[in-house]
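Message: I would love a firmer grasp of how sequence relates to backbone shape in proteins. Thank you; the sequence and its tokens follow:
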Amino acid sequence: MWPFDRKARTQAMLDKVADARKKEDQENARKLAMRRAVMKSMERRASDNAKKWAPPELMPGVVPAGVTPAVAMDSLCGPTYQFLNSAAGGLYAANIQPFPGYQNLAALATRAEYRAFASTHGNELTREWIEITSKSRKDAKALADKIKELEEACEYFNLRNVFRQAAEQETLFGRGQVSINVRGADISIPLILDPRTIQKGSLRDFTTIEPMWTSPSAYNALDPTAADFYKPSTWWVMGHEMHASRLLTIITRPLPDMLKPAYNFSGMSLSQLAQPYVENWLRTRQSVSDLVDKFSRTFLKTNMAQVLNGGEGGDVFDRVEMYVNMQSNLGMGVMDSETEDIVQVNTPLSGLSDLQAQSQEHMCSVSRTPAIILTGISPSGLNASSEGEIRTFYDWISSIQEAYYYQPIDTCLKVIQLHLWGEVDDSITFKFKPLWQPSAKEESEIRFNKAQEAQIYIANSVIDPSEARQQLSDDPDSGWDNIDGDLEIVQPGMFDDEGGDPGVPVEQNKGALNGAQVSSLVEISQSVAAGTLSVEAAEAVLLHSFGINKEEADKMLSPPENVPSVDVAESAKVDAPAPDVLPGEEGQ
């Protein structure tokens, strides 16, 4: 056999062995990939099976040593946890996570996004605060001093800031609690709003307690028809048992009864609700940042044969390093005009801002807070405005105030009244101030419209001027709430003979009307003739405002066919000299 035939045969055998080995390696790689996929699936399944509804982990010392927590697995909640875990597969298929624990919720509070949720809701809920008033307007002046004293006491006890902190804690952890601290009181017994239990001057202060320091001590889990079913009657507060009436609990996102033990009888934290949306926003923001950082890439077209054939390629890498070091507006690049070229590839960035803004809007939507309030970023685009969204948000905040904060604040106000006066005045109440405040221009327009409305009512004898004055005095937004509403204003010369023109005798000054009054008489007569004012109403105005007797009023308001052809203004004239003619100069 010729040497070259033997060499070719040997090469063919080597190629065949190499192909077989290559196929074997590919098969082994495929089997390895399959095994890895199976292992990941098993790990995921094991992880899902490991995530079960379980009792919350309590801070050491919350429940006294040797006492079984009311939310433990071996308590009355045991069957509840078993029932929840029987359907755990379906729950986790929907990506529903159990209670993350106060440790994780506290850690989330360190991120700006979760912190913004809590601070925004807490500030907006208490920004305008409350207005303490009387239930009846008639008692407003009599209770003015007591209301002022009650307002000063609320400032002394820092009641507004206490509820702001409670709102923030409720947003972060799902439950806000306000403790009513009375000197010398037994905190384990109910707090009754009575002078015998809250003596005058016995209130110490109000404090907020984070949910991690409390846990239910007793609750009704047997009678669903009872009002206190799955509502704690007493709480453990760092080893001390406190009655629920002394620990005002605020939960704006309540959970179903079967989930309450697993959440330590808290509500759903807004941080946990918003976590998927915040994570999407953070991922989108980082992806956009990475894309902007690497959107432009530069390629050098050169001979890569040496590198691809296993060589060191030092010349190629040296040239690349030279291009990188000299890549600036003041640098200069050099290349082979025949075998080399530089190409710049740019990634399109259009639409990235829309994707990022949409992700941020989704984060705002879960908290029902407009982006302008939560982030301070105003909407963009032609004729874009957030006024409608802000008004809707304020309406939602107002509904939260009435539904979840009215009763706790009312209880605190009654406790303060017992502390101040030793009694509760049932005629004192309060209301939440509206969050939407009109501008100075809008307030001026409102007052002007009210003034016109009062003028029309007075002119048509619907109300008396004294009633309009009283309305101004009672309205704190009128700008005239400091006037005396009971003071009667009498215009000179309207109801008596005094105050007339001193240059005219009294007998002539009697019944004299000025130009404005004559014009008013003409307008009243025209209104009666046009049918816009009844004869009775016009007659009442003439009798009470102009001092005209009933006979003269009937003549002035009678139909034209029964009245001599004399102008209405002529009937109001008197035989008095013209004001610009002096006595003794009539003939001149």
Summary: The chain has three domains: 1-45, 56-76+100-298+342-437, 508-571. Residues 508-571 form one domain.
